[in-house]
Design brief:
With 511 residues, this protein is an all-alpha fold. It folds into two domains: 401 residues, Growth Hormone, Chain: A, CATH 1.20.1250; 57 residues. The protein is 74% helix and 0% strand. The chain is built from 21 helices and no strands. The N and C termini lie close together (11 Å).
């Protein structure tokens, strides 16, 4: 198969015009996950939403993207990569405007789902373009450049979101997408080459519908489980059964169907198949801390939204740096060791965060965030090189689409699971702490405390309850980061199950 971008190898200017045209939309797509996290408490107030309900603003975006990401490879083959990429960017921009205009939680969640739905092809197709721009021996470099581009989102997202929310209002966290997307839309039309179309390449509707039903039911179960007391609720049982049956049908159909939209040939590659597990773990430990820390600083620490944005920015800077170094490291050493080092950074930083209180210093937040972000590049570059770049160009669009779909699954599971864990453990801890609150406890007979936490006045009892709630919340967040640390460290030995290839490029080709 001829490479439609081969002619651009000899022209660095044209190559960089293509890179900018596809990387800016990718950065904006990722930015829209992080930019909204610092605005969540303000949106919660606008929509009068509960703690778990407002998380739908984040997870609906991910789930909308998950469903469509899986078939973006088919759309690229059927209609052409350039055409799908352009329509995806344009529709994403329009959906961003409606996200800012939403007046109810239901409409906001719906538009966020559509925003993720329309923008889903952006990441896999942009990475596919990047791999086509460079010869196979430079795919590590291509993954590094692509990774640095998409990490502009985490670097700029919290700061932009905080500034827009504080100086204007939270809708401007969405409106800011429009000016960023206009020039890339023009660049896609002018510089991104067309690829061959296959008008006879039909969509596997059976597998696609099974995936939609399964992911939708799973999302509803996880989002509503805590509120409905999990499997004590007939609704949760129904959603769990529906998700299990639909996803089982989806997997069986991929392996046995005549023309499934996820080609089973990609699973013949050991590194790629194992890489799907890694990308789920990676997304889990990458995305959930962003949401948790934003809520921790604003809800418990009382930090202004702009300050929260600045506190989260060093995390992105660390990631940006490691994406640059990742390509250099895997060219000189075992890529599996680089991945393992990345998970060590994730695990150690999460362990440190688990010991924080609301009095943590800005310096601690900054350097721990840099360490956490640094781990992301050390994992992503070798993971992409060992797993995805080992596949032949014929299967690249489909394999990248499914790979990014699994990333979305991991991110959604991570955010929902950690928020539910924080809620459950904080409620349990609140009940435990109140057992010690009696008028016979010597702590409450001190010289100062009775004035603040008086049992004889409503204000004293209210102040005492607020402090118990705050301390319970801190414990809840701490437990989440202990869990993230444990998951990260458990992934380290799994890195060495990947097969090592010459030059850090992995082994095995499919197709």
């Amino acid at each position: 198969m001829s490479n439609p971008l081969q002619a651009l190898y000899a022209s660095p200017l044209k190559r960089w015009l293509v890179i900018l045209s596809v990387m800016i939309p990718s950065a904006v797509y990722v930015l829209d996950l992080t930019v909204v996290t610092v605005a969540l408490p303000h949106m919660q107030g606008t929509f009068s939403a509960t703690y778990d309900q407002i998380s739908w603003v984040v997870t609906s975006y991910i789930v909308g993207g998950t469903i469509v990401t899986g078939c973006s490879g088919w759309a690229s083959t059927r209609f052409g990569r350039k055409e799908v990429f352009f329509v995806s960017c344009a529709a994403f921009t329009v959906a961003s405007i409606f996200c800012g205009m939403a007046t109810t939680l239901e409409s906001e969640v719906a538009w966020r789902a559509l925003q993720g739905f329309f923008g889903a092809p952006i990441l896999p197709l942009s990475q596919s373009v990047m791999l086509d721009l460079y010869p196979k021996e430079r795919h590590g470099t291509a993954n590094s450049i692509w990774g640095m581009g998409i990490l502009l989102g985490p670097v700029l997202g919290p700061t932009i979101g905080g500034y827009m929310t504080e100086e204007y209002s939270w809708p401007w966290a969405f409106y800011v997408n429009v000016p960023f997307m206009l020039l890339p839309l023009l660049g896609i039309l002018l510089f991104v080459p067309r690829t061959a179309r296959n008008s006879g390449h039909g969509l596997d509707w059976f597998g696609f519908i099974a995936l939609c039903v399964g992911m939708g039911a799973l999302q509803l179960m996880l989002n509503r489980g805590e509120r409905q007391d999990w499997f004590a609720s007939p609704e949760i049982i129904l959603e769990a059964v529906l998700a299990a049956v639909a996803l089982y049908i989806f997997v069986v159909h991929i392996l046995t169907g005549r023309k499934p939209f996820v080609p089973p040939a990609i699973f013949a590659n050991w590194n790629y198949s194992l890489g799907l597990l890694f990308v789920i773990i990676f997304a889990f430990v990458l995305q959930s801390p962003i949401v948790l820390l934003s809520l921790f600083f604003q809800d418990l620490g009382g930090y202004p939204v702009m300050t929260v944005g600045l506190l989260l920015t060093p995390r992105g800077l660390g990631a940006f740096t490691s994406m640059f170094l990742g390509g250099l490291l895997i060219a000189r050493m075992d890529a599996r060791l680089v991945m393992a080092a990345g998970f060590v950074c994730f695990g150690f930083s999460a362990y440190l965060i688990a010991g924080w209180t609301t009095e943590v210093s800005a310096w601690q937040v900054a350097w721990t965030g840099i360490l956490q972000g640094f781990g992301s590049g050390l994992v992503w570059v070798p993971m992409g090189t060992l797993a995805v770049a080992t596949l032949t160009p014929r299967l690249r669009d489909e394999s990248l689409a499914f790979f990014h779909m699994m990333f979305n699954v991991g991110a959604s599971l991570g955010i929902i699971t950690m928020i539910n864990l924080a809620l459950r453990t904080s409620v349990s801890m609140h009940a435990s702490l109140t057992e010690y609150v009696t008028r016979f406890n010597q702590v409450f007979k001190g010289a100062v405390l009775p004035n603040l936490w008086s049992f004889s006045s409503p204000s004293g009892l209210a102040t005492l309850n607020l402090e118990i709630t705050r301390q319970s919340g801190i414990v809840g967040y701490n437990n989440c980061f202990y869990a993230i640390a444990a998951i990260s460290l458990a992934a380290i030995p799994l890195c060495f199950l990947l097969r090592r290839g010459a030059g850090g490029q992995g082994v095995g080709h499919v197709g």
